[in-house]
Amino acid sequence: MDGFDIATDRIQAAASxxxxxxxxLHREIAAMEGTLADIGAGWHSTTAGPRFAAAMGGYLxxxxxxxxxxxxxxxxxxxxxxxFEQAEGAIAAATPAVAR
Length: 100
Fold this sequence. Notes:
The protein contains two helices and no strands. The chain is mainly α.
């Protein structure tokens, strides 16, 4: 290993990006729920309609879990960024400056 580099701003940027994807996914899920409600209102069927709705509901549940996992991961990245920044500050404060 040649070195160890932690850039708190890059970790924070990654956290923000992950949060944005999670939020975007939540918006897409909400839009899809509206579309499925419209389809369900117009599709009168005793077999195909309910099966389709159940399948799509399962897919949306999976998508919700993914969105929540992304948001949780983004929060973890943001917390890691803060922890690294605090540690860096503590090391800097504990390191005496050398006068030239």
